[in-house]
Amino acid sequence: VQLVESGGGLAQPGGSLRLSCAASGFTFDDYEMAWVRQAPGKGLDWVSHINSGGAATYYDDSLKGRFTISRDNAKNTLYLQMNSLEPEDTALYYCARYLQSWSYDYWGQGTQVTVSS
Fold first, then answer.
1. Reduced to 3 states, what is the DSSP secondary structure of residue 11?
2. 85: which DSSP letter?
3. Which of 26, 34, 69, 92 meets the CB 3.0–4.6 Å disulfide criterion with 48?
4. Is the pLDDT at 64 greater than 80, yes or no?
5. Residue 14 carries which DSSP code?
6. How far, rounded to the nearest angstrom, does the alpha carbon of residue 96 sit from its chain's CA centroid?
7. How far apart are the first and last CA of the chain?
């Protein structure tokens, strides 16, 4: 199993970024997936979750509709569209494969998002 995130970088406040997570080594459309982030010096924070087919999505309430999770099962890729970025969104963003009961069994290496003027 391999999860490889990309798309992070430096963005200005109010800007946008689109993260991708390329999955391999397993049947991608059999699994629910999630994005989790870790801000500097803080613990892991769950961001968003999507079911295996992509029809059901869930978000942390604090995101206020700024982020959109999606997936392309034909491309074995998970996405996170992030709009209206705020400095508080600065973090290392991980994609993770959902196991059960709020646990995840595989994680990517993370992609850094920095929001600063």
1. strand
2. -
3. 69
4. no
5. T
6. 8
7. 37
Mean pLDDT value across residues 38-57: 96
Token pair recorded at residue 19:
């993260």
Please name which of 107, 97, 94 lies closest in space to residue 28, comparing C-alpha atoms: 97
Structure confidence at residue 101 (pLDDT)? 86
C-beta atoms surrounding 62 within 10 Å: 9
32 vs 96: CA distance, rounded Å? 9
β-sheet bridge partners, residue 68? 81
The average confidence (pLDDT) of the chain is 96
Q: Is there a contact between 7 and 111 (Cβ–Cβ < 8 Å)?
A: yes
HEC letters along 20-84? EEEEECCCHHHCCEEEEEECCCCCEEEEEEECCCCCCEEECHHHCCCEEEEEECCCCEEEEEECC
Give the tens place of pLDDT for each residue, 83-115: 999 999 999 999 999 998 889 999 999 999 999
Model pLDDT, residue 106: 97
